[in-house]
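Need residues for this backbone.
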């Protein structure tokens, strides 16, 4: 009898279902739907699809490794600091399920156990009410020094009356070469030429870096009207204010000014940019406002020494001139970025860290959604460190001093943040004493 039983076991295929075993349909798929399919589906940033068992099964061991090492889903906030409504990090119990599934042959299970498929918006992360045609930009395969300077383009918004937008998504056709695409709304002026790319040819050295000794550093005023409100960034492709019951006001006749930065990858492409919006049917009670604070860009103050493993940047600081609800935080640095911390310093002297990113990753620029009441007179201070040493595997060149600049091999220390206020609040009276922030990302 025992011999026959052992022989029968030997005939079972690897990963065959046994009683109580973790399966894809019952246990794994719900985790993927909640935490992974946002990126891992056709047309999105994930390199493979996790919509079905057939497309997921070949990646079982890779999924195990990624979740055990907490590389996936990408989430870099210190769990001991702040609270976030969009926290997509996995619970240990979810990690245990995925590991169990991979270690036991990744069985499919009963198809009847599968939850209903998520109805993802087709081709968009939002389902836009309005789509605005953006510019068409040729990105060369191998430009000089591999540099495509920042491009400024103005396009008509098409909004002929005051409009409250509730979400926005900037959609490049070729995200592999899009470092950032940021937009802002400005009043139309008669001198504007629509769809005409503009840029500054900076003096650069052999490595493609700007020349501080020639006065050619970040923040020169030749290109005007730039204003960053919403951005496409790796890991941050849309902004949605609907969960906050808030919206942004676009005045009638506004133009859309775009700040665009491409990083060529050896393949020439023509990028068609589109911008999608959802529109409020009724005026909201609350208004969403986007801001950015920066460390000083002056090369006398912002200069990361060669091989420095833990250089502390001058802080970025702003003071709130009225009560706000702080709802969004997004650190932005480049390849040498190491960590960033947002701290509120209240009028009574109390300090509260609301975000700490101890292991910054330029490849995943995540926006952290929170909810913190901030009283008038509070200072927001943002601190950051940079690793310009050879131990930083992402470091393009540890042997040179690095200045604030537009290219990925230069550096930035930029802190995006968003607040919600009463719909009648004046955007110009929300913050003050801010370190002048760069335009763009």
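Answer:
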């Amino acid at each position: 009898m025992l011999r026959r039983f052992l022989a029968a076991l030997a005939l079972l295929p690897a990963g065959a279902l046994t009683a109580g075993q973790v399966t894809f349909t019952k246990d794994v798929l719900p985790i993927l739907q909640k935490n992974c399919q946002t990126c891992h589906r056709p047309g999105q940033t994930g390199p493979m699809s996790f919509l079905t068992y057939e497309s997921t099964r070949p990646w079982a061991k890779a999924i195990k490794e990624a979740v055990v090492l907490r590389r996936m889903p990408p989430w870099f906030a210190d769990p001991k600091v702040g609270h976030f409504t969009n926290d997509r990090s996995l619970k240990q119990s979810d990690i245990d399920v995925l590991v169990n599934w991979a270690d036991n042959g990744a069985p499919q299970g009963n198809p009847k156990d599968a939850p209903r498929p998520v109805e993802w918006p087709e081709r968009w992360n939002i389902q836009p009410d309005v789509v605005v045609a953006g510019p068409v930009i040729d990105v060369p395969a191998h430009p000089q020094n591999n540099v495509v300077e920042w491009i400024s383009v103005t396009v008509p918004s098409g909004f002929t009356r005051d409009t409250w937008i509730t979400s926005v998504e900037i959609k490049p056709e070729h995200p592999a070469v899009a470092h950032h695409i940021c937009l802002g709304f400005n009043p139309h002026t008669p001198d504007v030429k629509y769809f005409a790319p503009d840029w500054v040819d900076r003096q650069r050295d052999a490595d493609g870096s700007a020349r501080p000794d020639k006065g050619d550093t970040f923040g020169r005023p030749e290109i005007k009207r730039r204003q960053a409100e919403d951005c496409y960034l790796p890991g941050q492709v849309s902004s949605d204010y609907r969960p906050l019951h808030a919206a942004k006001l676009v005045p009638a006749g506004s133009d859309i000014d775009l700040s665009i930065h491409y990083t060529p990858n050896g393949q020439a492409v023509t990028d068609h940019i589109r911008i999608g919006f959802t529109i409020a049917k009724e005026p909201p009670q609350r208004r969403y406002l986007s801001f950015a604070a920066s460390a000083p860009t002056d090369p006398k103050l912002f200069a990361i020494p060669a091989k420095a493993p833990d250089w502390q940047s001058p802080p970025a600081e702003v003071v709130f001139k009225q009560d706000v609800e702080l709802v969004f935080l997004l650190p932005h640095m480049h390849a040498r970025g190491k960590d960033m911390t947002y701290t509120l310093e209240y009028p009574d002297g109390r300090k509260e860290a609301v975000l700490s990113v101890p292991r910054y990753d330029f490849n995943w620029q995540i926006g952290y959604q929170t909810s913190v009441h901030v009283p008038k007179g509070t200072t927001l201070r943002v601190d950051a460190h940079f690793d310009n040493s050879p131990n930083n595997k992402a470091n393009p060149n540890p042997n040179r001093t690095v200045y604030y600049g537009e290219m990925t091999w230069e550096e930035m220390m930029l802190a995006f943040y968003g607040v919600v206020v009463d719909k009648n609040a004046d955007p110009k009276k929300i913050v003050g004493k801010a370190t002048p922030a760069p335009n763009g990302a």
